Amino acid sequence: MRSSEPAPVGGLVVRPAGAEDADALAALFLDARAAAYPAIPRPVHPPDDVHRWWRGRVEAPGCEVWLAEEDEGRPLGLLLLEADWLHSLYVAPDRTGEGIGSLLLDLAKTRRRRLGLWVFVTNAAAQRFYARHGFVEVRRTPGTGPEGNEEGEPDIELAWPDPASLAGLRARIDDLDDRLALLLAERAETTARVQRVKQVPGHAGRDLAREDEIVRRMAALAPGLGEERLRRIMHLVISESLDAADERPDRTGDP
C-alpha cells in the first residue's frame, strides 16, 4: 500500500500516525510490553521518556509510523519502520490473535522490498509469528557489546525475504541498481561540469590516456570483472555521460 490515506480493513482503520497520536502509541507500546513480560524484558526507560521517544519517531525523517484502530478510534496496533528495519510491531494485549499483527506486517512488506528486525531469544511466540510470514534467522547475539540491545538480553536478527533465496537476492540487486542509478546520475552531472571548463569539450576532447587509467584503477578494485569488460562498460558510461551533457537544456560554455 503506497497511499498515505486511511485504509479500512475488517472493521479497522490502518493509517499513518501523526504527532497527535504519539501518546496513544506510547501507551499501546507500554501496555503491550508489560503484558509480554517475561518473554520480552521490561523497558529500561521510564514512561515519560517512552512518550517523548514516540513523539520524536512520528516526526523523524526516515521513519514511518502506522496505527491500526477501531472505527471509534481506539488504537489496537502500531508499526514503526526505520529504513529497511521493522523497529516495532505491537498489538493491544486484549486483541492479540485476531490478525492485527499480520495485517500490519503485510503492510510493512508492501512498503519495503526487504525487512530486518530483532527479537529476543526468550520471545518464542514472536519467532513463530515471523517464521510463518517468511522471516528467517540471520544471526544471534548475546545482546551485549557494541551491537547489543538496551536490555542487554540475547537476541536474534531476522530477515525477509531469505537473503539466500531468489527473492532475497533480487531484492539485493534492486538495492544495488538504485544506488547505481544515483551514482550514474552524479557522474553524468560531474561530467557536464567538466565539459564547461575543458578547452575542447565533448567527444572531441576525450582523454584516452585518462580513460585507460580509470579502467586500470577500477580493475584493481574489481579484478573479477577484468580490464576488457570494464573498458567496455566505462566506454559506454563516458559516451552516454557526454551525450547527456550535450543535451542539457541549461548547457552553456561558461565555467
List key phrases describing it:
255 residues, alpha+beta, Aminopeptidase, Chorismate Mutase Domain, subunit A, 2 domains, three-stranded antiparallel beta sheet, 7 helices
3D architecture notes:
The chain has 2 domains: 7-164, Gcn5-related N-acetyltransferase (GNAT) (Aminopeptidase, 3-Layer(aba) Sandwich), CATH 3.40.630.30; 167-247, Chorismate Mutase Domain, subunit A. 44% of the residues lie in helices and 19% in strands. It has helices at residues 22-36, 47-57, 100-111, 124-132, 166-195, 208-221, 227-247, and strands spanning 7-9, 12-16, 63-70, 75-82, 85-91, 115-120, 136-141, 155-160.
CATH architecture of the largest domain: 3-Layer(aba) Sandwich
Helix segment tally: 7
Q: SSE string, helix = H, strand = E? A: EEHHEEEHEHEEHHH
Our Rg estimate from Cα atoms comes to: 25 Å
Q: What's the number of domains? A: 2
> What class do helices, strands and sheet pairing give?
alpha+beta
User: What is the helical fraction, as a range of percent?
Assistant: 40-55%
CATH evolutionary superfamily of the largest domain = Gcn5-related N-acetyltransferase (GNAT)
Question: What fold name goes in the CATH topology slot of the largest domain?
Answer: Aminopeptidase
Quaternary state reads: single chain
The CATH C-level class name of the largest domain: Alpha Beta
Count of extended strands: 8
Spans of at least 5 consecutive residues whose pLDDT stays below 50 are: none
Taking strands numbered 1, 2, ... along the chain, how are they ordered across the largest sheet? Answer: 1-2-3-4-5
Overall pLDDT: 93
Principal-axes shape call: elongated
In whole angstroms, the N-to-C terminal distance is 46 Å
